[in-house]
Amino acid sequence: MKLIIDETRCKGCNLCTLVCPYSIFQEGTTPNRRGVVVPVLDRPERCTNCRLQKLYGRVLCGVCQMICPDQAIRWVDEKPYEPQKVVIEY
């Protein structure tokens, strides 16, 4: 699973940046075509929901998706053999 922010729906309220326990959202810096500064993902692979949702078959956190008033955050299945960034934190 991977996290997607739908830029056409997001109004830039940045609630997701406040509630994520893994701090994978950061306030954006560049306005999009509509003039909305959309949050950006910062190493989303740190989110256990993204990594383990399929394994456990249930939503583990999902606070960002629940708090989003515009329903702009969602998870999508990754394509088979899609390249993934691996991060090792010490």
- The total of beta strands comes to 4
- Provide the β-strand percentage band: 5-15%
Poorly predicted spans: none
Quote the distance from N terminus to C terminus: 24 Å
- Any idea of the CATH topology? Alpha-Beta Plaits
Biggest sheet: strand arrangement: 1-4
GO molecular function, one term: oxidoreductase activity
InterPro entries: 4Fe4S_Fe-S-bd, 4Fe4S_Fe_S_CS
Organism: Methanofollis fontis
Domain 4Fe-4S ferredoxin-type: 1-30, 59-78
Secondary structure elements and their pairing?
Elements: E1 2-5, H1 15-19, E2 25-26, E3 40-41, H2 48-56, H3 63-67, E4 73-76
Antiparallel strand pairs: 1-4, 2-3
Protein described:
Pfam families: Fer4, Fer4_4. It comes from Methanofollis fontis. Residues 1-30, 59-78 form the 4Fe-4S ferredoxin-type domain. With 90 residues, the chain is α+β, with helices and mostly antiparallel strands. The protein has one domain (2-76): Alpha-Beta Plaits. It is 21% helix and 13% strand. It contains three helices and four strands. The chain has helices at 15-19, 48-56, 63-67, and strands at residues 2-5, 25-26, 40-41, 73-76. A two-stranded antiparallel ribbon has the order 1-4. The longest helix has 9 residues, at 48-56. The chain is globular and about 35 Å long. The relative contact order is 0.29.
